[in-house]
């Protein structure tokens, strides 16, 4: 049995981040030692309930359940976990915030805490503790986690949204590697369609995939929904360039992308119908799990989103922040749980369980072996550092969240690409929608 | 003296107290019997409705109560093209789907009212679309209408009738017709079975009399069946219109209001703006804007009912 004391625990620190994770009884001992030394002591008889997004990769959830069991064993705090599709966490959290009753913790999508910042617990002490211990937070996580000067949520991880593509088909079309710029990407899409191996990006109301790529496209061409003062500036020549680019790209996609929700491209890629799309690593993970899809898993790879005329990465990835509600009866237990989740001995194991689908927000976890064990996952390691935040130049608050939830950008791109509106009309409608949201 | 007093008391006519009068008052008793139902209606129907209307006049966001802003939410909606598109979509969806549901439902009801072999089984089968939970049938339609894997496209392609997949949910009008079709499929059994129940109340003697008078099948339907069926048609179609107008699940599973809001109904837009976007006030304003349409639907069928009574020569109440 491994004896772990408070001293060895403190010695561990950042080094443990690279050293992998503990398992079985060792994990329990470590957890108990952690509970003794942690700055947050759960209240007597504390019980927590958490609503989290439903896993995409089973092994991630298995690792998560073990992590929660270890927390319960160490602190005596029972954690009830409920799972909902990630789009459904927000409405439930909103209702809980409104009524002042519901789960103690919500683990949802990017701007969730900014929809009701005054209902979120101040977790600045947890964020500072973790930031100091694990090499600091990536800048985007700070933007998402803070409202004013205080942290209202702990950014747990990102789900990267990058290009997924078939290598052999690309090579056949004359592209030995995935295009790095938007111009090359358009040429690539043309060549791929011409040889009968098209791809596609969602133009439907796909919360993750569609919002991911349209924001990339808008920002890549210098367009922005709002400026730094949250003034609506969508109606601009840069936005028009982005729209024209998207329309040209749409013409080179497989037909039907205007109806795509989040799961359509996964299905189509795994069925061999499309050969490039934007997605998390879930397509690859699904292909790896299924022996019948081995050919696709072996032949596919991932790449950063191409760089546009503005010359720097303009990706938008999904952040999963966890927040504690102010109505909880057990704030210390909530904070202890948040910190416990992100301690190296827990988080490393969980990161590995998520097989690249989830990316850390604390710099020390760059060295986790999950990013190098399979080089097809490596690009996803960097998504937290590359991503811009919801709202672009503007604030990351509830207005940005509302604009994303209302699909303002997606509809602008879709209405122009499908020919329903001209560029000016599409921008004008989006401008009106944004003015309503940012009023 | 004592006796006299006692006699006086005995003989004096007793003045009934208010309480005693109330005890035997049928209206007073009736009010108490009605109270539980009234409390239920006020608590679960009138209060939420009133609250919804009130919220539509505030700038409430999720997580905090709003301040009164008068008609501001409605003013923003007034020149919001997406809102007007959703009104158009909702009216189109309701009118087309309800008309088809009525026509197909009535036809099925007339068919099932005949003496057919396996009548009971056939009637049970007709109910299946209504029994299946909407979300499940919507998912089935989602696969049927998939842009890549639709069995309809696959079959037509194999038959050599088309060369590329039909873009059921990606094209604006295809998407509208597709969701309307799914709604009709789901709504027909309700209309058919209820009208069938109505048909069975029509006395066979009326048909016999009409036949003796030399009426043909159309005349029998037009002058016997249809007038006798109008009260139930009014009720069924009111319900059907209300259900269709407020439909949410089918759209949310199939298209989420896309493509480009082509299938965005007022109910889905209200949910999107209020719950997902956090603007409770505006979402409530969209929901409140549905009320006049719903009231109109109810009033039309109500007056339809009265006219029927007049036709029948009954007391017009």
How would you characterize the overall build of this protein?
The complex is a heterodimer of chains A (439) and B (317). Chain A has 439 residues and is of the alpha+beta class. In chain A, 47% of the residues lie in helices and 11% in strands. Chain A contains 22 helices and eleven strands. In chain A, a hairpin with a 2-residue loop joins strand 4 and strand 5. In chain A, helix 13 packs across helix 14. In chain A, 59% of the residues are buried. Chain B has 317 residues and is mainly α. Chain B has two domains: 17-55, no CATH class; 59-312, MetI-like (MetI-like fold), CATH 1.10.3720. Chain B is built from 15 helices and no strands. Chain B is flat. Chain B starts with a helix and ends in a 5-residue tail after the last helix. Classes of the chains: A alpha+beta (439), B mainly alpha (317). The interface between A and B is large, with 44 and 39 residues.
Tell me the structural class of chain B: mainly alpha
Number of strands of chain B: 0
What average pLDDT do the residues of chain B reach?
Answer: 87
What is the class of the largest domain in chain B in the CATH system?
Mainly Alpha
CATH architecture of the largest domain in chain B: Orthogonal Bundle
CATH topology of the largest domain in chain B: MetI-like fold
Just name the CATH architecture of the largest domain in chain A. 3-Layer(aba) Sandwich
- Low-confidence segments of chain B, given as residue ranges, are none
Please trace the helix and strand order of chain B, writing H or E for each element: HHHHHHHHHHHHHHH
Anisotropy-based shape of chain B = flat
SSE inventory with pairings:
The complex is a heterodimer of chains A (439) and B (317).
Chain A: H1 6-12, H2 15-18, H3 24-37, E1 47-53, H4 58-75, E2 78-84, H5 86-99, E3 105-107, H6 112-115, H7 124-133, H8 139-145, E4 146-147, E5 150-151, E6 154-159, E7 162-166, H9 167-172, H10 182-194, H11 209-220, H12 237-251, H13 264-270, E8 276-279, H14 282-289, H15 294-299, E9 300-303, E10 318-324, H16 331-342, H17 344-353, E11 358-360, H18 370-373, H19 383-386, H20 398-405, H21 408-417, H22 423-437
Parallel strand pairs in A: 1-2, 1-3
Antiparallel strand pairs in A: 3-10, 4-5, 6-10, 6-11, 7-8, 7-9
Helix pairs in contact in A: 3-4, 4-17, 7-16, 11-12, 12-21, 13-14, 21-22
Chain B: H1 2-11, H2 18-23, H3 26-55, H4 72-78, H5 81-112, H6 119-126, H7 128-131, H8 134-144, H9 151-158, H10 172-199, H11 204-212, H12 217-245, H13 249-254, H14 266-276, H15 280-312
Helix pairs in contact in B: 3-15, 5-10, 5-12, 10-12, 12-15, 14-15
């Amino acid at each position: 049995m491994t004896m772990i004391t408070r001293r060895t625990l403190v010695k561990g620190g950042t080094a443990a981040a690279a050293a992998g994770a503990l398992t079985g009884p060792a994990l329990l001992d470590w957890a108990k030692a952690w509970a003794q030394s942690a700055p947050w002591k759960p209240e007597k008889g504390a019980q927590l309930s958490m609503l989290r997004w439903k896993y995409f990769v089973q092994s991630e959830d298995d690792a998560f359940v073990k992590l929660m069991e270890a927390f319960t064993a160490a602190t005596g705090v029972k954690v009830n976990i409920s799972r909902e599709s990630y789009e459904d966490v927000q409405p439930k959290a909103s209702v809980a915030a409104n009524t002042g009753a519901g789960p103690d913790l919500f683990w949802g999508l990017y701007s969730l805490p900014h929809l009701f910042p005054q209902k979120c617990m101040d977790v600045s002490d947890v964020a500072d503790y973790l930031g100091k211990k694990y090499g600091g937070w990536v800048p985007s996580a700070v933007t998402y986690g803070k409202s004013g000067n205080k942290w209202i949520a702990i950014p747990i991880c990102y789900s990267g949204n990058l290009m997924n593509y078939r290598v052999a088909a690309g090579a056949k079309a004359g592209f030995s590697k995935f295009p790095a710029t938007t111009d090359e990407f358009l040429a690539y899409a043309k060549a791929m369609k011409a040889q009968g191996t098209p791809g596609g990006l969602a133009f439907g109301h796909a919360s993750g995939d569609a919002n991911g790529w349209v924001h990339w496209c808008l920002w890549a061409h210098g367009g922005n929904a709002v400026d730094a003062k949250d003034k609506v500036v969508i109606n601009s020549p840069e936005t028009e360039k982005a729209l024209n680019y998207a329309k040209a790209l749409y013409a080179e996609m497989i037909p039907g992308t205007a109806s795509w929700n989040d799961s359509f491209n996964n299905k189509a890629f795994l069925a061999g119908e499309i050969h490039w799309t934007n997605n998390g690593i879930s397509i690859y993970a699904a292909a790896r799990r299924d022996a019948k899809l081995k050919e696709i898993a072996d032949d596919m790879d991932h790449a950063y989103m191409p760089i546009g005329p503005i010359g720097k990465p303009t990706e938008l990835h999904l952040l999963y922040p966890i927040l504690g509600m102010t109505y909880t009866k057990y704030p210390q237990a909530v904070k202890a749980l948040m910190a416990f989740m992100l301690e190296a001995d827990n988080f490393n194991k969980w990161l590995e369980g998520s097989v690249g689908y989830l990316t850390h927000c604390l710099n020390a976890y760059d060295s986790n072996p999950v990013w190098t064990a399979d080089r097809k996952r490596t690009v996803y390691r960097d998504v937290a550092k590359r991503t811009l935040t919801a709202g672009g130049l503007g604030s990351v608050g509830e207005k940005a969240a509302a604009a994303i939830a209302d699909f303002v950008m997606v509809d602008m791109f879709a209405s122009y690409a499908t020919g329903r509106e001209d560029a000016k009309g599409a921008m004008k409608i989006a401008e009106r929608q944004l003015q309503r949201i940012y009023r | 003296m004592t006796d006299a007093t006692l006699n006086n008391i005995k003989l004096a006519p007793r003045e009934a107290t208010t309480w005693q009068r109330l005890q035997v008052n049928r209206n007073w008793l009736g009010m108490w019997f009605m109270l539980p139902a009234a409390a239920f209606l006020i608590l679960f129907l009138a209060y939420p409705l009133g609250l919804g209307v009130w919220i539509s006049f505030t700038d409430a966001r999720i997580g905090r109560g709003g301040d009164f802003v008068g008609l501001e939410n409605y003013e923003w909606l007034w020149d919001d093209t997406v809102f007007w598109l959703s009104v158009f979509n909702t009216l189109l969806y309701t009118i087309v789907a309800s008309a088809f549901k009525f026509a197909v439902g009535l036809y099925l009801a007339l068919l099932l009212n005949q003496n057919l072999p396996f009548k009971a089984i056939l009637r049970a089968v007709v109910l299946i679309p209504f029994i299946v939970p909407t979300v499940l049938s919507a998912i089935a339609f989602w696969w049927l209408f998939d842009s890549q894997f639709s069995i309809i496209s696959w079959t037509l392609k194999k038959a050599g009738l088309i060369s590329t997949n039909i873009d059921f949910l990606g094209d604006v009008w295809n998407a509208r017709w597709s969701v309307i079709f799914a709604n009709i499929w789901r709504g027909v059994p309700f209309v058919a079975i209820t009208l069938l129940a109505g048909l069975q109340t029509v006395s066979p003697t009326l048909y016999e009399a009409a036949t003796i008078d030399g009426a043909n099948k159309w005349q029998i339907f037009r002058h016997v069946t249809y007038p006798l069926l109008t009260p139930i048609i009014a009720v069924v179609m009111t319900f059907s219109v209300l259900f269709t107008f407020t439909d949410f699940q089918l759209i949310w599973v199939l298209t989420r209001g896309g493509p480009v809001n082509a299938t965005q109904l007022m109910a889905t837009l209200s949910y999107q703006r209020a719950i997902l976007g956090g603007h409770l006030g505006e979402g409530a304003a969209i929901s409140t804007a549905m009320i006049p349409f719903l009231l109109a639907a109810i009033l039309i069928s109500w007056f339809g009912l009265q006219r029927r009574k007049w036709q029948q020569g009954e007391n017009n109440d």
